[in-house]
Automatic annotation (TrEMBL):
One of its GO terms (molecular function) is transferase activity. Keywords: Transferase. Residues 18-173 form the Glycosyltransferase 2-like domain. It comes from Actinacidiphila cocklensis. The keyword Transferase applies. It comes from the Bacteria. The lineage of its organism: Bacteria, Bacillati, Actinomycetota, Actinomycetes, Kitasatosporales. The keyword RNA-binding does not apply. This is Glycosyl transferase family 2. Belongs to the glycosyltransferase 2 family. It holds the Pfam family Glycos_transf_2.
Length: 266
């Protein structure tokens, strides 16, 4: 675990929920949860089992995490919306998304939380001068296009709009509990565009990503070109589709108990 610049920071008086969307991640999940406990011992951890067919839920429970089991695979967007609904209902002050595949270094979580002092949504950015993560060809062109558009909207440099390593405050939790896209790239690109369109402050923190501990990325020239086309389409839709009005956490309507809908349990 590589500590971020504020790795020694505590969560203070904030109640923090770390949301870990997981689909068939039993193999590496225990190690991720152990690192989270070391990095942010005061935070609660919710693993959203996104219709897994392996022992993801059992592994999470054995590690002491809260577990929400979805009846079938909804994708990262659907899993995260479940997590945000739980965070809103239980009154958490901040929520952090950490992937279950080991790429996100929990040592940077305190840095993301610290940056919430001046932002509503903080993104852990791979292309901000830390680490050696690189992309080439059409994927690089996609990242540059997204960076150009979103940086202009935010009034600050945003280099990694597809990062799923992020933290948000209470008002952002309330917004995402009501509206969180589940389509391809919706959980990253469209959710950030929606937040910016509704006036939320989005900032980034430089982080180093690690190789995934489970699974393997699918990369080929043809897939990269498809990715570029999809990225452009997602960005166009995100800029034109209706986004609900922002709502402060205190005024947000109570959502159904996640325990009733997704079986949240220890």
């Amino acid at each position: 675990m590589t500590p971020g610049p504020d790795a020694g920071a505590d969560t203070g008086r904030r109640r923090v929920l770390v949301i870990v969307p997981a689909w068939n991640e039993a193999e590496g999940l225990a190690a991720v949860l152990a690192e989270l406990r070391a990095a942010v011992p005061a935070a609660d951890v919710l693993v959203v089992d996104d219709g897994s067919t392996d022992r993801t839920a059992q592994t999470a429970r054995a590690a002491g995490a809260l577990v929400a089991r979805l009846p079938y695979n909804l994708g990262v967007g659907g899993a995260m919306r479940t997590g945000y609904r739980y965070a809103l209902d239980q009154g958490y002050d901040a929520a952090v998304q950490v992937d279950a595949d080991g790429q996100h270094d929990p040592g940077y979580v305190p840095a993301l939380l610290a940056a919430l002092e001046t932002a509503d949504l903080v993104v852990g950015a791979r292309f901000a001068g830390v680490g050696d993560y690189r992309v080439r060809g059409p994927r690089r062109w996609s990242m540059r296009l997204l960076s150009l558009v979103l940086s202009g909207m935010a009034g600050t440099r945003l280099t990694d709009s597809t990062s799923g390593f992020r933290a948000c405050n209470r008002d952002m939790i309330a917004f995402f509990a009501r509206w969180y896209p589940a389509e391809y790239l919706g959980d990253t690109v469209e959710s950030m565009v929606g937040a910016l369109r509704r006036g939320y402050q989005v900032r980034q923190v430089a982080v180093a990503m690690r190789p995934r501990t489970t699974g393997a990325p699918s990369q080929s020239p043809a897939r990269a070109l498809v990715y570029l086309a999809r990225t452009a389409l997602v960005l166009l839709l995100a800029l034109t589709r209706r986004v609900p009005a922002p709502q402060r956490a205190e005024a947000a309507a109570r959502v159904p108990e996640p325990a009733e809908a997704a079986g949240v349990a220890r």
